């Protein structure tokens, strides 16, 4: 599949999730706006406000990057904590808006993202890079995937706080697996597994099955595609896997539900899942 198709697919999937979330937020009673979300310390309104900032950040970085500008947003210049402080102020301000106004801001952000994503999907496969406050300068195609990850997981963060049985929106599943694959090394924090060594196959089913090998050695993890036989295999689906890799839910919860199946060296697979951190 071409890079342009990858970008277009991710943009379409993200917009489907976002449109569903906007309708969900509009339907919430005002009293539910202040309920705790699954993001520790954030209410539903806080997460919605965060997503407004995500739209401005990612859409703005793509737009500037297409013009060859990889510099930080103006709000992030001057000192190391500038972006974090700006984000905290904006989340507080946006969260205090009436529900209808905050949802309108979210919808407006979707409109503002659509044009740069469409332009990116139509561009040369290597149009340059863009800036992100924690990831640094990344290829512009990364930003389309980051939008999918952000909206899919934060949509779940909001919904599960009102419905414990909520799942990651299936519209995101086809591209969520590859995005989790790319982010797996960043989500691996082996505080207690520095001696772990071996290879684990991650096998995700669903509408667009994807498989990859993760090699663990000396406290580090890397993605390899060398055809070796794995020491252990984790078979699950993109929704369950994304929640486990970002440590939103423990893998054994999905195992109890029949969505997480292990073969081979079970201890190794369990240790890998235990070393995941948030994203």
What would you say about this model in short?
This protein has 279 residues and is of the alpha+beta class. The chain has nine helices and seven strands.
Strand order within the widest beta sheet: 5-4-3-6-7
CATH class of the largest domain: Mainly Alpha
CATH fold-level assignment of the largest domain: Four Helix Bundle (Hemerythrin (Met), subunit A)
Contiguous runs where pLDDT drops below 50 for at least 5 residues: none
Structural class: alpha+beta
Number of domains: 2
Helix and strand element order: HHHHEEHHEEEEHHEH
Total helical segments: 9
Shape: globular
What Rg, in angstroms, do the CA atoms define?
A: 19 Å
Structure summary, number of beta strands = 7
Mean pLDDT: 93
CATH superfamily of the largest domain: dinb family like domain
Q: Would you identify the CATH architecture of the largest domain?
A: Up-down Bundle
Largest sheet, described in full?
5 strands, mixed
């Amino acid at each position: 599949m071409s890079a342009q198709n990858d970008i277009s697919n991710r943009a379409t999937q993200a917009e489907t999730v976002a449109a569903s979330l906007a309708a969900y937020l509009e339907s919430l009673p005002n009293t539910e706006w202040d309920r705790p979300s699954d993001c520790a310390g954030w209410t539903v309104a806080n997460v919605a406000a965060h997503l407004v900032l995500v739209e401005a950040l990612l859409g703005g970085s793509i737009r500037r990057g297409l013009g060859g500008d990889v510099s930080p947003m103006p709000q992030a210049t001057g000192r190391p904590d500038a972006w974090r402080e700006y984000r905290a102020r904006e989340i507080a301000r946006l969260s205090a808006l009436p529900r209808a106004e905050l949802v309108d801001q979210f919808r407006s952000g979707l409109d503002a993202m659509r044009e740069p994503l469409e332009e990116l999907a139509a561009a040369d496969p290597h149009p340059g890079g863009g800036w992100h406050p924690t990831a640094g300068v990344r290829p512009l195609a990364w930003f389309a995937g980051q939008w999918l990850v952000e909206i899919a997981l934060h949509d779940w963060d909001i919904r599960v706080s009102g419905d414990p049985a909520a799942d990651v929106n299936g519209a995101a599943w086809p591209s969520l697996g590859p995005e989790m694959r790319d982010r797996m090394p960043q989500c691996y924090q082996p505080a207690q597994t520095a001696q772990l060594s071996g290879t684990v196959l991650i096998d995700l089913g669903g509408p667009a099955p994807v498989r990859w090998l993760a090699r663990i050695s000396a406290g580090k993890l890397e993605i390899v595609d060398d055809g070796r036989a794995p020491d252990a295999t984790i078979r699950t689906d993109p929704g369950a896997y994304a929640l486990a890799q970002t440590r939103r839910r423990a893998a054994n919860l999905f195992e109890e539900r029949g969505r997480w199946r292990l073969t081979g060296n079970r201890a190794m697979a369990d240790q890998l899942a235990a070393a995941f951190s948030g994203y």
